[in-house]
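Hey, I was hoping to borrow your eyes for a little while. For a while now I've been wondering how a particular protein folds. The fold is given in discrete form, as structure tokens running alongside the sequence. Could you read through the record and tell me how the tokens relate to the sequence? Take your time with it, there's no hurry, and the full record follows here:
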Amino acid sequence: MKGKTDTKKPSPEAELRSIIGRFDPKIQKLARSVRTAVRKRFPTANELVYDYGKQLVIGYSPSENGIESIVSTAARDAGVALYFNSGPQLPDPKGLLLGKGKATRFVELDSANRVGHPDIEAFIAAAIGLSKVPLPRKGKGAVIIKSSATTRRKHR
């Protein structure tokens, strides 16, 4: 007689908390506080979660498509960064944006308070203005696990 295995999948929120929990405690704390700050700024956006094993990316998108994310956070052992998906088009008179990619630019975050800094807020406002898909006016965005390193390992 076969025993039943517990196939109940954790909620996306629980899975995201578990992914964050794999980082060093200092990075965990920073990633959680940055997530809270960005979520406050984008309450109606979906949080699209990409677990790359050594890096966690959360895109804040008006849809379920990562390409439509306005900003993303990336947590890795070296720290947490805020990415702007329309980065090359953003005005940056102070030269604060890092990176040379065709689609993104980023700023390193040493605390969640930096998300509310006027320079960062100006980048966020400009990125929202450049978004091709408007953010929903009402509601609360969902946590959507788009890619999980643990799921990929099981399928290999």
About this structure: Residues 25-41 form the longest helix (17 residues). Residues 91 and 123 are 8 Å apart (CA to CA). The helical segments are 12-20, 25-41, 118-130, 149-155. The beta strands are 46-51, 55-61, 71-76, 79-84, 105-109, 143-147.
